[in-house]
Structures are given as structure tokens and as C-alpha cells.
């Protein structure tokens, strides 16, 4: 674990795996809930947790060295089930990358339990991990100018669902009608960091 | 007339509703947003008697014009510009009474980029996640204003500040941005780190609320490959593949995969928001506090 100073009042705490990042994020949340840490934003990401708006960054760097971070709670978080139709335009391309028949893509994807590693790109866009490393995928060489809301997509080690229509370079494998983001709802984001996710094929698929 | 609202008669190039933004949601991918020049927004609010978190209008280069449906007190600050009420010149940087039915015009900026227009009661559009700010990156908050937009106002506050005007910093002719190194300075060559703080940059015309883009020497990476996405702070100096540093402003993405070579002191960002395209920029290294 390494704490990199970011400006005057933030620290980027770097670890060596997404598992460790999840564990660290859970520990940071626990310490904040206990009043041990005053911080404006806690932003988990692939290998880091950003602590922005810290009360005393220099002191926190010293403290972090003595933190003992337990493994991430695996079953503690809620499970969100997202209905999905595996009808994306990139199914064939994904199948080719994975060296499997096209219908196997849906079976592999729906058979995986994902975790929201972090959010970014757009409000409510979660980067979901869970697929084995052999299924890592490149982004499309040419991004699409418009990906529809609800598109279920893959890139690198991640699965994501576009909360609203936007440009995007991920490979599209399906569609969900779930509303990923609704700022009038509490909570606004269906997929927050740490939440577990399963994709459930719609009837008849 | 008791209809507490204003009607946008001339929206200008880009006029948005702004307040203190919506911090605390970065982990969901929600930018903080809010006024790019917070001291200017706070000042015009104070001049009309509003609390600091009241929503104001933020213009871009060419001002805007609004018609008051009831008598209101208005103050225009930030980028200096001509102000007129009912076609007659009025004070900039001071409270001005706009009678019901009259037009308030904030003209093109004489210097700087963003003028702020506060109306007594504040712009009272429906808040999203606790803020009325327009976030141009993710589309939260009200859309940028268009001609004919009707904006509701909040209840009239107490009497406006009893001041004729207040000192405001001049928009910068030369932009000096103090930076602390890191967190990813080690992704760049020693020369790139030196170049950032010794060479001359200029504000690029493609700057916006997301970032202040610069033109100048490209900064060379020492490490190739992709940085896994990581959290981004306000003022981060991110270096995309073309090597030209971008300073993240209020609507910046909450995570990103390009390395951050340095971070600009928050106190210097209001000046960055007022630097017109072509303004010379110097990044000056300072010690971390």
C-alpha cells in the first residue's frame, strides 16, 4: 500500500489488485463511519482509493502505514439482478475473441457474479469485475458515436451498462430495461461501488 | 406583479445556472460542478442579499439578458461587462434594482470569460442531488439556457448588502498556476516535469467547464501503456496522449486513465476560469502545505 499526495488535501492510496482496492475501500468507509476519518470524497478505482478533502493528509500518510486491512466482505453487500437480452451488435466479435460459439457468450456472462469495482464515465456507470482474465477484451477500434441507454457492454476486464445514451467504445453484447440512474430516486445509482450484480437472461432468450 | 421569475431574452453563447455544486457523489461518477469562479458567484450573491448557496447565472464571453417579472435586485460580477437596466447603463459589481417588466442586460465581457448574475431570491429551479448547477459533462441540472427560458426565483431575501460596490480581482493578463507535483509525475521524463514549470503555455480556445486546455510543448511520457482508471481531483493537471496539459475544472470526470503530472492550488482556479483563450500560462512549482 502506497499513499501518493495529490495537491494539498488529497491522497491517492495505491494497492496492487482490484481485490485489495475493494478491501481498502471497505476499510475507508468503515473508518469514516466510525468518525476516525474526515474526508469529502472517497473514490475507489481499479487499483486505488482517492481520499479527497482530507483533514490532515500528512498525518493520514503516517497512519496508513499501520492500517491492517481485512479482506473485502464478500457477501455483505446487496445483490442486484439486471434482466438482460443478449442481443448486442458485437456478440459475434466477442465470441471470436473468446474462441466460443456466439450463444456461449450469454451463458458465460449470465453465469458470472459481478462486483461493482468503481463508478465513473457517467453518473451511475459502474465498472463491474468478475469475468476471468482470459475474457479480457479490447475496446472497439472506432468508438460508436451513440450507444443506447441500457446497453450491456464489455471492455478490458470490465462489464458496464450505459445509464444513458452516449458515445462509447465498448463491445455491446446485450440490453437491459433496468434504470441504472434516476436522480429523483434514492439511491440515484442502482450500481454503487461494492454492490454485487447478476445478469438474468430475459424469458425466452 | 408577484410572479417571482425571470425570462431569458438573450441566452448568449453559453449561460448556465450555477451554485456551490454537488460534492460528495464522485464515487457514483457525479462531477462536483458549480460556479467556475466561486468567489465571484459568492460576491454577487452577497450584493443582492442572497445566502452563499443561492443559484446564479454564469455567462460565457458574451453575457446574457433577462427580463424581470417582478421587481428584483440584481448584481453582475466576475468578468467585467457593460450592464444596462431598461436600456440605461447601470453599475457592474453593485446591487441594481430592476423594476418589474424591465430588461437587465449583461453585455459582452470586456475582460475575462465568465460573468455572474445574481437575482434576489436566487434561481429556484428544482435541485438535483442537492444542487441546481448545470453539469455539462454528465447533463445533470438544468440545460444551458435558451431564449425564452423562464426561471423561477426563490423568496425574496432580506435587504441587499449596503455597499455600492466591492473590489473584485481583474481577469488575468498572465495566468500563474501554482502546482504541487504528482501523483503521477513519475510517468513522465525528468525533462517533461521541468518543461511543465519552465516553458510557456497558452490557454487553448477549446477550454470549457470541464477543463482548461493549453497549447505549448508536449510533455513526454517516461512510461508507456495505460494507467488503470483512478480518482481525479479538481485542479488535476492531466496529460492526454497529445502531451498538452489540461487543468481539470468543476465539471471534470471523477475518474480517468491519463496520468496527472501535478495539481493546481484551488485558490488559483478562479483566475483560470477567467483566462481568455491565448492568455499566457505559467505553472509554478510550490511546496505542499
From TrEMBL, chain A:
Q: Does the keyword Transmembrane helix apply?
A: no
Supply the alphabetized keyword list: ATP-binding, Hydrolase, Nucleotide-binding
Question: Can you tell which superkingdom this protein's organism belongs to?
Answer: Bacteria
Carboxyltransferase domain sequence ranges: 1-191
- Mind listing the GO molecular function terms for this protein? ATP binding; hydrolase activity
SMART domains attached to this UniProt entry: AHS1 (SM00796)
Pfam families assigned = CT_C_D
Return the InterPro entries for the record.
CT_C_D (IPR003833), Cyclophilin-like_dom_sf (IPR029000), PxpB (IPR010016)
Signal peptide range in chain numbering:
none
Tell me what this protein is called: Allophanate hydrolase
Automatic annotation (TrEMBL), chain B:
Keyword Cell wall biogenesis/degradation annotated: no
A single MF term (Gene Ontology)? hydrolase activity
Keyword rRNA-binding attributed: no
Q: Which InterPro entries match?
A: CT_A_B (IPR003778), Cyclophilin-like_dom_sf (IPR029000), PxpC (IPR052708)
Q: Tell me where on the tree of life, at the top rank, the source sits.
A: Bacteria
Q: Which residues form the Carboxyltransferase domain?
A: 27-289
Q: Name one Pfam family in it.
A: CT_A_B
Q: Keywords of this protein's UniProt record, alphabetized? A: ATP-binding, Hydrolase, Nucleotide-binding
Official protein name in the record: Allophanate hydrolase
Q: List the taxonomic lineage.
A: Bacteria, Bacillati, Actinomycetota, Actinomycetes, Kitasatosporales
Amino acid at each position: 500500500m502506497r499513499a501518493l499526495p495529490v495537491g494539498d488535501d488529497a491522497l491517492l492510496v495505491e494497492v496492487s489488485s482490484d481485490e485489495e482496492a475493494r478491501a481498502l475501500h471497505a476499510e475507508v468507509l468503515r473508518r469514516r463511519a466510525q468518525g476516525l476519518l474526515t474526508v469529502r470524497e472517497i473514490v475507489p478505482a481499479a487499483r486505488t482509493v482517492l481520499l479527497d478533502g482530507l483533514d490532515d493528509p500528512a498525518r493520514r500518510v503516517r497512519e496508513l502505514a499501520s492500517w491492517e486491512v481485512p479482506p473485502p466482505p464478500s457477501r455483505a453487500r446487496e445483490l442486484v439482478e439486471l434482466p438482460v437480452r443478449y442481443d448486442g451488435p458485437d456478440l459475434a466479435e466477442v465470441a471470436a475473441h473468446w474462441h466460443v460459439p456466439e450463444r456461449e457468450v450469454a451463458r458465460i456472462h449470465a453465469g458470472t457474479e459481478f462486483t461493482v469495482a468503481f463508478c465513473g464515465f457517467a453518473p451511475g456507470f459502474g465498472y463491474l469485475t468478475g469475468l476471468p482474465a482470459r475474457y479480457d477484451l479490447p475496446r472497439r477500434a472506432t468508438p460508436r458515436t451513440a450507444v443506447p441507454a441500457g446497453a450491456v457492454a464489455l471492455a478490458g476486464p470490465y462489464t458496464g451498462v450505459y445509464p444513458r445514451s452516449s458515445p462509447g467504445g465498448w463491445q455491446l453484447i446485450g440490453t437491459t430495461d433496468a434504470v441504472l440512474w434516476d436522480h429523483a430516486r434514492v439511491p440515484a445509482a442502482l450500481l454503487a461501488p461494492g454492490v454485487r450484480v447478476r445478469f438474468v437472461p430475459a424469458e425466452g432468450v | 406583479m408577484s410572479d417571482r421569475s425571470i425570462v431569458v431574452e438573450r441566452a448568449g453563447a453559453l449561460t448556465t445556472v450555477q451554485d456551490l455544486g454537488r460534492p460528495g457523489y464522485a464515487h457514483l461518477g457525479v462531477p462536483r460542478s458549480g460556479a467556475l469562479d466561486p468567489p465571484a458567484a459568492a460576491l454577487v450573491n452577497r450584493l443582492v442579499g442572497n445566502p452563499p448557496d443561492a443559484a446564479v447565472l454564469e455567462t460565457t464571453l458574451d453575457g446574457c439578458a433577462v427580463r424581470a417579472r417582478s421587481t428584483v435586485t440584481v448584481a453582475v460580477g466576475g468578468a467585467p461587462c457593460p450592464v444596462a437596466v431598461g436600456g440605461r447603463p447601470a453599475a457592474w459589481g453593485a446591487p441594481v434594482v430592476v423594476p418589474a417588466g424591465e430588461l437587465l442586460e449583461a453585455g459582452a465581457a470586456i475582460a475575462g470569460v465568465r460573468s455572474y448574475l445574481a437575482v434576489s431570491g436566487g434561481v429556484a429551479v428544482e435541485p438535483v442531488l442537492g444542487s441546481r448547477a448545470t453539469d455539462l459533462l454528465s447533463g445533470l441540472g438544468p440545460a444551458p439556457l435558451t431564449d425564452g427560458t423562464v426561471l423561477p426565483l426563490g423568496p425574496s431575501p432580506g435587504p441587499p448588502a449596503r455597499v455600492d460596490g466591492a473590489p473584485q480581482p481583474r481577469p488575468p493578463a498572465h495566468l500563474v498556476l501554482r502546482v504541487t507535483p504528482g501523483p503521477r509525475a513519475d510517468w513522465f521524463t525528468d525533462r517533461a516535469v521541468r518543461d511543465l514549470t519552465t516553458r510557456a503555455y497558452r490557454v487553448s480556445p477549446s477550454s470549457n467547464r470541464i477543463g482548461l486546455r493549453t497549447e505549448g510543448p508536449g510533455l513526454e511520457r517516461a512510461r508507456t501503456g495505460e494507467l488503470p482508471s483512478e480518482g481525479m481531483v479538481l485542479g488535476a493537471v492531466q496529460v492526454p496522449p497529445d502531451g498538452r496539459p489540461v487543468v481539470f475544472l468543476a465539471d471534470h470526470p471523477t475518474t480517468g486513465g491519463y496520468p496527472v503530472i501535478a495539481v493546481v492550488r484551488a485558490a488559483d482556479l478562479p483566475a483560470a476560469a477567467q483566462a481568455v483563450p491565448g492568455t499566457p500560462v505559467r505553472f509554478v512549482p510550490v511546496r505542499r502545505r
